[in-house]
């Protein structure tokens, strides 16, 4: 039985006092046992604080990025081992902003995935097409290539520590959401692609999240689709009320 997950990607938002405010609201309203694993991804500077503050709650902490090396002369970078040492359980890799703005390639992402898994981090691996790729009917090819180059050189045993997030780039931060049918179609395709390479047992167990303008108003309908196992939430994760409404949409 695969896990439902709702993960909030705070991106480069929330300084320490804003983080404290958001945490207080989240903790106040997260009393009932959620139907999904809840994850929040603050900035590097707030990871340890968030981890400590959430101790005793079911909420897990994710990092938004990491460097692929164990340590060394990489000024400004953070390694997987540093993340686990401050209580981080997940790392988001391959987010479209990292791919587009920071020019992260599939080859680099494959190295990051390897390092994360080796250091006992769970990976939330993001894939998704741009608008012109969908319009030219290339979206399945794009996603298949991102998966095969960035993720598929892991072992069968590693899959228990992998979550996939399908995030069509045209739906991120735009207010435009993929329809539940479009999300289901791509999620089913991703599961089939995993199955062809690693077998149906692994494909049935891997959680596939949808990301792209998920809000309280549309979460239920999207999460109801057979192959959608939750969401990766950007903008709406910055408001406790909205994020928790999404968490409670299962
Ligand atoms: C994201 O950045 O992962 C995301 C899904 O953002 P938003 O929910 O704001 O579209």
Automatic annotation (TrEMBL):
EC number: 5.3.1.1
GO biological process terms held by the UniProt record: gluconeogenesis; glyceraldehyde-3-phosphate biosynthetic process; glycerol catabolic process; glycolytic process
HAMAP family: TIM_B
Residues annotated as catalytic: 95 (electrophile), 167 (proton acceptor)
Superkingdom of origin: Bacteria
UniProt keyword terms in alphabetical order: Cytoplasm, Gluconeogenesis, Glycolysis, Isomerase
Gene encoding the protein: tpiA
Recorded metabolic or biological pathway in which this protein acts: Carbohydrate degradation; glycolysis; D-glyceraldehyde 3-phosphate from glycerone phosphate: step 1/1; Carbohydrate biosynthesis; gluconeogenesis
GO terms for cellular component: cytosol
Chain sites annotated for binding substrate: 9-11, 173, 213, 234-235
EC class of the enzyme, as a word: isomerase
Family: Belongs to the triosephosphate isomerase family.
Entries under InterPro entries matching the protein: Aldolase_TIM (IPR013785), TIM_sf (IPR035990), TrioseP_Isoase_bac/euk (IPR022896), Triosephosphate_isomerase (IPR000652), Triosephosphate_isomerase_AS (IPR020861)
Annotated compartments: Cytoplasm
Gene3D superfamilies (alphabetical): Aldolase class I (3.20.20.70)
Protein name, as recorded: Triosephosphate isomerase
Subunit structure, interactors included: Homodimer.
GO MF terms, alphabetically ordered: triose-phosphate isomerase activity
Pfam families for this protein: TIM (PF00121)
Catalytic activities: D-glyceraldehyde 3-phosphate = dihydroxyacetone phosphate
Function: Involved in the gluconeogenesis. Catalyzes stereospecifically the conversion of dihydroxyacetone phosphate (DHAP) to D-glyceraldehyde-3-phosphate (G3P).
């Amino acid at each position: 039985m695969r896990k439902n997950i709702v993960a909030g990607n705070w991106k480069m938002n929330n300084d320490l006092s804003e983080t404290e405010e958001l945490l207080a609201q989240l903790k106040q309203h997260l009393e009932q046992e959620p139907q999904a694993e809840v994850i929040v991804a603050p900035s590097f500077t707030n990871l340890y604080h968030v981890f400590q503050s959430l101790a005793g709650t079911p909420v897990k902490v994710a990092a938004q990025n990491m460097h692929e090396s164990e340590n060394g002369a990489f000024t400004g970078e953070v390694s997987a081992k540093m993340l686990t040492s401050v209580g981080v359980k997940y790392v988001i890799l391959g987010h479209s902003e990292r791919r587009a703005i920071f020019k992260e390639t599939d080859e680099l992402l494959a190295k990051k995935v390897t390092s994360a898994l080796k250091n006992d981090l769970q990976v939330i691996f993001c894939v998704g097409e741009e608008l012109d790729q969908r319009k030219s009917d290339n979206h399945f090819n794009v996603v298949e290539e991102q998966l095969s180059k960035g993720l598929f050189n892991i072992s069968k045993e590693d899959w228990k520590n992998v979550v996939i997030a399908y995030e069509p780039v045209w739906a991120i931060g735009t207010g435009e959401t993929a329809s539940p049918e479009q999300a289901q179609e791509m999620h089913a395709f991703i599961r089939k692609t995993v199955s062809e390479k690693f077998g149906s047992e692994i494909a049935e167990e891997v959680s596939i999240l949808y990301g792209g303008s998920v809000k309280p108003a549309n979460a239920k309908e999207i999460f109801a689709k057979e192959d959608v196992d939750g969401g990766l939430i950007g903008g709406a994760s910055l408001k406790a009320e909205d994020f928790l409404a999404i968490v409670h949409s299962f």
